[in-house]
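Hey,

Quick one before I head out. I ran the complex with 2-acetamido-2-deoxy-beta-D-glucopyranose overnight. Inputs first:
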Amino acid sequence: MAKHNGRSKAASFLSDGFLFIGGALVAFLVVWAVWSFFSPSPTPSPAFSISPYSDRKSGPDTSVSAAATSCAGGANLRHDPPDANFYDDPKLTYTIDTPPIKNWDEKRKEWLKQHPSFAAGAENRIFMVTGSQPTPCKNPIGDYLLLKLFKNKVDYCRRHGIDIFYNNVLFQPKMFSFWAKTPTVKAAMLAHPEAEWIWWVDSDAAFTDMDFKLPLDRYKAYNLVLHGWPNLIEKKSWTSINAGVFLIRNCQWAMDFMDVWASMGPQSPDYDKWGETLSTMFKDKIFPESDDQSGLVYLLLEEKEKWGNKIYVEGEFYFEGYWMEIVGTFDNITERYTGIEKDVAGLRRRHAEKVSEGYATVWEEHLKDAGNGRGSWRRPFITHFTGCQPCSGDHNQMYSGQTCFDAMQKALSFADNQVLRNYGFVHPDLLDPSTVNPLPFDYPA
Ligand SMILES: *[C@@H]1O[C@H](CO)[C@@H](O)[C@H](O)[C@H]1NC(C)=O
């Protein structure tokens, strides 16, 4: 995944404010570009009741009625009436390079009508998709890191009632590495008509704020949400957005978009041509092959009317953030949060993990001045280990493997502490994932 190395490198310069790296540096970067293979498989959690990812404004005090409602309206996991729907159409295929799906919106709607217990709350339901390569990691600790990174996503999903699918096969054998997400997301859209949104999260990204929820209201008029920097998009930089984490609406627009996006990939007869087009357009692109991220920026800019206008570029918080810029802030953030807990008895109260969203809304009141994203003291939402290549170990040579490893341990412990809190334990040292201490009653009063 030479590409990811290159990306991270460019991303780091980007975050430091100098995006347009000179030719010499570009050449230097190319040297470090190494391919690694990533691919995104199913781990649907058998939820007895699907909790919609809706904004529950209720605090812990009113959560009783909310919970009662969700129980009464729980999804029926056994009801699948014999009436025909899109699954019975022999021509419909899950693969990416096949006749396009048509009238998906109507087909999904029809399915929801047949499955009324899923229809309730469908408009805000998110389904998470992630994955990694089919074979063991080359890096001896790669599979250990991938397991912890997956655990981190499962923790986030459990706290918010989101189902998750971990794919570790290539649904289109030629679509290796970062191209693997496109066929996976398409198959997930068909497998999960109950979900309005598919949330792709790269294997090397970690949730470092277990409470924060995507501001879905903001994305109402959009079908695709990406993290990016609008001023850099205009300057035609291939790192002006990050394709490693995205939210895509389960709709016909997205089906069409995925087809167009995937048509730039290695399985396509136009792959080489796209490599040329993208390299010509993005002067800072560091390798000649077509890649998914440049492809996205291309569609944003060149087909604005058709695609760009439905794409929301999120820049207000760490929809995903570069680890180098984030990891150093964890200690101070922990201190700030602990200080707040010392003052607010309500936040120290022990509670069931299931109602943690209620406590998150109480936290919000105390985080109004924190800001969000770069320079803020709020917990960063997603920390992305771009360039660390945990599975292959072919990390960017700009930093050592140990630096990456320590940063991942730190971020994952930082996140785990938010989870373990509900289980009565804490890691006293973020760099020592083996050690936990029991939390005393009323900690940290
Ligand atoms: C953490 O806080 C200390 C004291 O306020 C400050 O000097 C330091 O720059 C902060 N570190 C980071 C990484 O923000």
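DSSP finds 16 helices and eleven strands in the chain.

Talk tomorrow,
K.
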